[in-house]
Amino acid sequence: MADIDLALQHYDGDAAKAVVDDLIDAYAEIYNVPPYAGDPFFSVASYADRLHAAFTMPGFETVTARLDGVLVGYVHGVTLPADKPWWISLGDARPADTQAAAEAGEVFWLRELMVRPAHTTRGVGRRLHDAVIAGRRQQPWTTLTCIIDNEPAHGAYLRWGYEILGRIKHAPESPVYDAMLLAPA
Fold this sequence. Notes:
The protein has a 7-stranded mixed sheet, sandwiched between helices. It is α+β, with helices and mostly antiparallel strands. The chain has helices at residues 13-16, 20-30, 44-54, 85-89, 96-103, 124-134, 153-159, and strands at residues 7-11, 61-67, 70-79, 107-115, 141-147, 163-169, 176-182. Helix 2 packs across helix 3.
């Protein structure tokens, strides 16, 4: 893994609106490959709607990584709503104290982590992940969902300490995901 000089920047929901075009452009490039290309759930328009909706969710934060001023990746997430249907559907698969933590606003939902193809395997994803998690110390649990056949991301999350809780769907039109949880450090 080459050490590269990334400029990391944190944004809340209001500030992220100023870089939304960059975020959507990165998504369009990254998700323009199988199995995403051509799937309406992963269309740029669908993602843009989900991203704009996320800006107003409690605890929204994005961290961008730029190299020589060019966006090479970003991560974003929100405070997990305790009544989120996919979260509730996991039932007893969740560790006992996580539902209470979610009800107290102490679970961070990492919604997206993406790195442009030219910059994968260089540690960008891990640096973005660690930067957003470091800013969430008041939310000791971190949850995410990952498409099962998304390697190498799925494997990276497992190496970083996430545990699979079960399989879920965000919506009837979404693919099946592994719901993953990272316990407090």
